[in-house]
């Protein structure tokens, strides 16, 4: 527990400085290696995708409620939909940030791994380690492609949501709500596709984490 607290404090301090090499070096001194950091960051990225799935679904539900508006406070329904859109935007930003952090530590890990392979004098051990590195890189590349594929589906959805929110902001009445109903079906389909793509990425993440933790 003490080791984890120390590592967390070091992470916070050095992340502010922005010196990744110093950060990784300091974490290694307290027994927290790049491999461990990578597993944790993949886990964080996976969790951010799960949260984004929930947030986009909530945004869709609030927009559906707004479009089904029939009496009551239209402005209140609009504000709820707007809040959910803004939360979806924040969730999308977090997904992108987490993926970038995975890429940062992967680059450092693979560079260190290759450097250390070059220091192995016995040919058979060097060959085995090199094969393991290539296998891990292939698995990682598949993972990141899956993450980025899911990520790429978010901006068009957010743009459509933003367009609707801005339109309604300037024309907040039943007629304006009716004018955007035609776009809802497309948005519904896009969000469904996003969630499916994220499920694939989450499955890839689980597989990658398992392989890293088992060492296989």
From TrEMBL:
Protein name listed in UniProt = DUF2959 domain-containing protein
Q: Does the keyword Coiled coil apply?
A: yes
Q: Which residues form a coiled coil?
A: 35-98
Q: Which UniProt keywords apply?
A: Coiled coil
